[in-house]
Amino acid sequence: MKSMRGKRVAVLGGAGFVGSHLCERLLDDGAAVVIAVDNLITGNEENLRTLNGRPGFSFVKADITERIPVEGPLDYVFNMASPASPIDYAQLPLETLRVGSIGTENGLKLAEANKAVFLMASTSEVYGDPLVHPQREDYWGNVNPIGPRSVYDEAKRYSEAITAAYGRTKGVQVRIVRIFNTYGPRMRLNDGRVVPAFVGQALKGEDFTVFGDGSQTRSFCYVKDLVDGLVRLMLSDEPNPVNIGNPREMTIRQFAEAVRAAAGGGGTIIEKPLPKDDPKQRQPDITRARTLLGWEPKVPLEEGLRETIAWFREVAGTKPPA
Ligand code: UDP
């Protein structure tokens, strides 16, 4: 069976939330070399604190839209680089478009030069505000091409297109993962996403800011489960997109109650304006991940939230509610 043992791997976006967990998992699996590349615009070197000093690990501060200063040989290139929260990509629209387009092509060229396998971290956002539910990989999506989310959605759609084209025309072995909502330690408390927002509010005893009436749904996957899916996909032979996410779907109001229960605190629910083009429903169909990769999520929401809350309490220095 294939494994990461002894392999040489580059993780673009390696100092981000998902990227840093991936680097850790690769080292745990016995990779000989793990090179994290990040320009730190939304990533954070602090995420790599426990990895610095581990044999084989190194960090390169670089913008992959300019040049990727990584020496081969390489067996695998993971492209996890992009701002990923709606607030981040609204504030960094051109950076988001460039990293998904130019950055992805630079990553593909790095893989091509090294005959490495390239994995593109795409997103459930390629389905936009989906008219098909749950979302299967053969659904082409419902994306507003000029709306506020388009800088992310269209960049990721382009990155899938160029990844597929390098696979078809340049002989690069490619993988495409569509990542659904993921949570866990190392999310930024102020990145605007619902998990850090609600956890922060619960820990400070503040009201939960539900956007709209809170009837929109999401399905939350713990980061360790996601990373296991990424490694399995990379080691598979599957060139076509695979959804990785947790199919347990809930409304945002239900999610606020789940965070309140796990944290043992928080105020009431207050409604705030719903952002434009906010998807009304989202749930992965993971039939392909199950059958092709033997993957499914294992960590229940309650357990993942406990881990996440404990981390926010400790590291982010938020005090437990009185
Ligand atoms: N949301 C919310 N309150 C917040 C932050 C987000 O109700 O403080 C909602 C948001 O409108 C969306 C869902 O929670 O419907 C998930 O938002 P997030 O930004 O985490 O990710 P998305 O899935 O929209 O990319």
Polypeptide structure, described:
There is one protein chain. Helix 1 (17-28) links the parallel strand 1 (8-12) and strand 2. The protein has nine helices and 13 strands. By secondary structure, the protein is an alpha/beta fold. Helix content is 36%, strand content 17%. The model has no long low-confidence stretch (mean pLDDT 96). It has two domains: 8-182 and 222-244, Rossmann fold (3-Layer(aba) Sandwich); 187-218 and 248-283 and 299-316, UDP-galactose 4-epimerase, domain 1 (Alpha-Beta Complex). The protein has helices at 17-28, 86-91, 93-114, 150-169, 194-204, 223-235, 252-263, 287-293, 301-314, and strands spanning 8-12, 33-38, 57-61, 76-79, 117-123, 174-179, 182-183, 208-211, 217-219, 221-222, 242-244, 249-251, 269-272. It is globular. It has a seven-stranded parallel β-sheet, sandwiched between helices. It has a two-stranded parallel ribbon with strand order 7-10. It has a two-stranded parallel ribbon with strand order 8-13. Helix 1 crosses helix 6 and helix 5 (194-204) crosses helix 7 (252-263). Uridine-5'-diphosphate (UDP) is lined by residues 85-86, 181, 193-194, 197, 209-211, 216, 218, 252, 275, 278. Residues 85-86, 181, 193-194, 197, 209-211, 216, 218, 252, 275, 278 line the site of uridine-5'-diphosphate.
Topology (SSEs and partners):
Layout: E1 8-12, H1 17-28, E2 33-38, E3 57-61, E4 76-79, H2 86-91, H3 93-114, E5 117-123, H4 150-169, E6 174-179, E7 182-183, H5 194-204, E8 208-211, E9 217-219, E10 221-222, H6 223-235, E11 242-244, E12 249-251, H7 252-263, E13 269-272, H8 287-293, H9 301-314
Parallel strand pairs: 1-2, 1-4, 2-3, 4-5, 5-6, 6-11, 7-10, 8-13
Antiparallel strand pairs: 9-12
Helix pairs in contact: 1-6, 3-4, 5-7, 5-9, 7-9
The chain binds uridine-5'-diphosphate (UDP).
